[in-house]
Specification:
alpha/beta; Arc Repressor Mutant, subunit A; D-Maltodextrin-Binding Protein, domain 2; 10 helices; rod-shaped
């Protein structure tokens, strides 16, 4: 018994005529009759009673009609679901990100993707940079959103990952509002060398912490660094007057009333935000779409 036989049988049952069913199926009557006979032989029961006016269903035939309708409906549903996933119209996309991207590049990317594919389930997980890269490399996440280290993506990503830069922004000084006017605008980073710097925890992979350290060293000093888990914590401590920081320009959105950002007088490497994906041939349609939509977001510098 195969699906084609069941479909033929249902049409015959609906038409109550092999001749009418053959016309509806665009078949000649002999091959249709042969398929029906084969179905009855495989099941070992009589499904149809033939007479001059057409056919009638036996009790077994009526029972098969109900089962066949449910079975074929399930098959059609499964086929449509598979097609939608294969065409990137539905499915699930797992996205990992580091917290420092949550208020800048992540919202517009997710907003554009959800508008384009509202039926796709988006799964989010926030973690440190190293964890994001490892989850993507291991296939536990489809994409990762991270700040790239100042050395550039190609030399530091490591094996098995591809990166697409989706945002570039300058570094800025983050200062207590009540002391910001004591520094020139733009700020000479060397003038902050005696301050305590608040930054995110350093990782092997790099990220924002590497930008802060690199900028200070290019300015001729090693910062007194206090590490915290979140950029929001660093900003809050700066706002409390306990020190300063150097962060990507988007940090202005979370500064609140007690901290302000100022441009830096020196030129430092631009902070790049990258989308990471596993290097395993052609990405699936949802990953390709997310990458394309993310790359179309206008940059702010």
């Amino acid at each position: 018994m195969d699906l084609r036989q069941l479909r033929y049988f249902l049409v015959v049952a609906e038409e109550r005529s092999v001749t009418a069913a053959a016309a509806r199926l665009h078949l000649t009557q002999p091959p249709l009759s042969a398929q029906l006979a084969r179905l009855e032989h495989e099941l070992g029961v009589t499904l149809l009673v033939r007479h001059r006016r057409g056919v009638d269903l036996t009790a077994a035939g009526r029972d098969l009609v109900e089962h066949a309708r449910h079975l074929l409906a399930d098959v059609d549903t499964a086929a449509e679901s598979v097609r939608r996933i294969g065409q990137g119209r539905s499915g699930r996309l797992a996205l990992m990100f580091e917290a420092t991207t949550a208020w800048s590049v992540l919202p517009p990317m997710v907003r554009r993707f959800h508008a384009a594919r509202p039926d796709v389930e988006l799964y989010f997980r926030e973690d440190r940079t190293d964890a994001v890269t490892e989850h993507v490399r291991a296939g536990r996440a489809d994409l990762g959103v991270v700040h790239l280290p100042p050395a550039g993506a190609t030399s530091t990503i490591g094996s098995g990952l591809d990166v697409e830069v989706v945002r570039r922004e300058p570094l800025v000084a983050v200062l207590p509002r009540d002391r910001a006017d004591t520094y020139e605008d733009p700020v000479d980073l060397a003038a902050l060398s005696n301050e305590t710097f608040f930054g995110t925890v350093r990782s092997e992979w790099g990220g924002i912490a590497a930008h802060l350290l690199g900028a200070c060293r290019l300015s001729g000093f090693e910062p007194a660094l206090q590490e915290v888990e979140l950029v929001q914590t660093a900003v809050a401590l700066v706002g409390a007057g306990l020190g300063v920081s150097v962060l990507p320009a988007a940090v202005e959105r979370v500064c609140g009333p007690d901290a302000v950002t100022r441009p830096l007088a020196q030129h430092f490497p631009i902070v790049e935000t990258g989308l990471l994906r596993r290097r395993s041939g052609t990405p699936d349609p949802l990953v390709r779409l997310f990458l394309r939509l993310a790359s179309e977001i206008p940059e702010e510098i």
